[in-house]
Amino acid sequence: MSAKRLLMGAVLVASLAACSSVPYAQRMSNRQAAYAAAAGEPVRNFRFFELYSWEPLGNSQLAVYTRPNEAWLLTVSGPCPDLDFTNVIGLTSNLHEVSINFDKVLTGRTFPCTIAQIRPVDVAKLKAVEHEQRKIEAAARPQEPTKN
């Protein structure tokens, strides 16, 4: 394979990657805004028995659900490599309690990320914000004059 073909292939891959990152960045920004709008004041800890589900919100934030209608917005101190792309996470806890500045988010591939802030999420409010973000403004198409 010639160097010219190899270079053109690399440019094509780079340009496709750049194009695909715009929707991801916009989606991530919308998700972060929705969670921030639905999150309450910071708390020091929360009870943790089971990780029901989770959602990455970049490399320094994630939402964890401990029940279908109970969620927490976690911010880690500093960027947490792989957080926004890992397939599995874990949380440390002490006596079924996750605390700031003590417990960590585990991604499995990098060092544990210390939890710096915990905010309870009002899941009903989150769903309302998500519903509002999905609204589409529809307008009737102007009719073209009919030709006789």
Observed structural traits:
two-stranded antiparallel ribbon; single chain; elongated; 8 strands; 148 residues; 6-stranded antiparallel β-sheet; alpha+beta; signal
Account of the 3D structure:
It comes from Dyella koreensis. This is Lipoprotein. Keywords: Signal. Residues 1-25 form the signal peptide. This protein has two helices and eight strands, in the order αββββββββα. It is α+β, with helices and mostly antiparallel strands and 148 residues long. The chain has a domain at 41-131. Strands 2-3-4-8-7-5 form a six-stranded antiparallel β-sheet. Strand 3 (61-67) and strand 4 form a beta hairpin. It is elongated and about 80 Å long. Residues 6-20 have low confidence and may be disordered.
Kindly report how far apart the N and C termini lie.
Answer: 62 Å
What's the order of the H and E elements?
A: HEEEEEEEEH
Strand order of the largest sheet: 2-3-4-8-7-5
Principal-axes shape call = elongated
Structural class: alpha+beta
Radius of gyration: 21 Å
Binned strand content: 25-35%
What does the largest sheet look like? 6 strands, antiparallel
Helix content: 25-40%
Low-confidence stretches: 6-20
What's the tally of helices?
A: 2
Give the tally of β-strands.
8
Name the average pLDDT: 84
Keywords: Signal
Protein name: Lipoprotein
Organism: Dyella koreensis
InterPro entries: DUF6491 (IPR045500)
